[in-house]
Amino acid sequence: MSTPVTPLEGKVALVTGAARAQGRAHAVRLASEGADVVVTDICAPVSESVSYPAPTPDDLAETVRLVEEAGGRSLSAVLDIRELGALQDLVTRTIATFGRLDIVVANAGVLNWGRLWELPEDDWDMVIGVNLSGTWRTIRAAVPAMISAGNGGSIIIVSSSAGLKATPGNGHYSASKAGLVALTNSLALEAGEFGIRVNSIHPYSVDTPMIDPDGMAEIFGRFPSYLHSFSPMPLKNVLADGVSTLADFMPPEEVADVVSFLAGDGSRSISGVQVPFDRGALRY
Ligand SMILES: NC(=O)c1ccc[n+]([C@@H]2O[C@H](COP(=O)([O-])OP(=O)(O)OC[C@H]3O[C@@H](n4cnc5c(N)ncnc54)[C@H](O)[C@@H]3O)[C@@H](O)[C@H]2O)c1
């Protein structure tokens, strides 16, 4: 049996953190496969202690344009995933407009650096608040609507390799992403009876603004031994012309390949699984 060109035709997806980078790549990929895609982002700095720049509302508008160019209908909202009411309003608009919600890509996240016993309380609260609690709020808003729609669905939680291993220098980020593993696995059991699958993906070294060379140079300059936990990826990138290179960073579109697989029927029996996306680096 051949795979349909638009296997997600008739499905509706929600992608958080979609103004740029990985979130945008996921939104555009799902649209190109036939889905209507609701996109959201805070489009502003989450905190002054985040060293890399934030996206703008224009970036989110560009994602909407790209989703529509890829063939999907779209809705968008500038919101903070730490605000449950705003997420619930967006889900209500989604159901009013499209009648269903099938796919959630809980992708929004934030990173900053510091040793655990030196972190300002605000940094701990901010990173846990966005990455862990904000992802729970995304689920809290979306799952009741998915259950009511009665079509089952797929939830993809964007964790990190830092959710599966120690990452000295950003232990609060690691703790937030490890918390997402527990959230994923418990939700997979709870939502399974409604036909909703839940899996987490664990990227490493994806070429996005979050990878801030200055912030990393500063922490690794102070604590060179921490570099050991941020090893190069062992798997060579074999290009179409046969040239192999050791890639330092992977493009967001490669992560979208995995999201697309987990969103679609090809993964219909996969739930409660952690999928590393790191060209084998976890095994060091
Ligand atoms: N880049 C990497 O190497 C890497 C590795 C592992 C995991 N991740 C994870 O991948 C996801 C996407 O990150 P990215 O690499 O595309 O970086 P990014 O900074 O470009 O994307 C994150 C997006 O989330 C949005 N966001 C942050 N806080 C928000 C909030 N409170 N409410 C709504 N939106 C918010 C940001 O504005 C941004 O657009 C994140 O969860 C990140 O932790 C990234």
UniProtKB/TrEMBL annotation:
Identify the domain of life: Bacteria
Keywords, comma-separated and alphabetical = NAD, Oxidoreductase
Q: Which residues form the Ketoreductase domain?
A: 11-204
Q: Which PROSITE patterns match?
A: ADH_SHORT
Xref: Pfam families: adh_short (PF00106)
Q: Name one GO molecular function term.
A: oxidoreductase activity
Q: Which CDD domains match?
A: SDR_c
The UniProt similarity line reads:
Belongs to the short-chain dehydrogenases/reductases (SDR) family.
This chain belongs to the protein called 3-oxoacyl-[acyl-carrier-protein] reductase
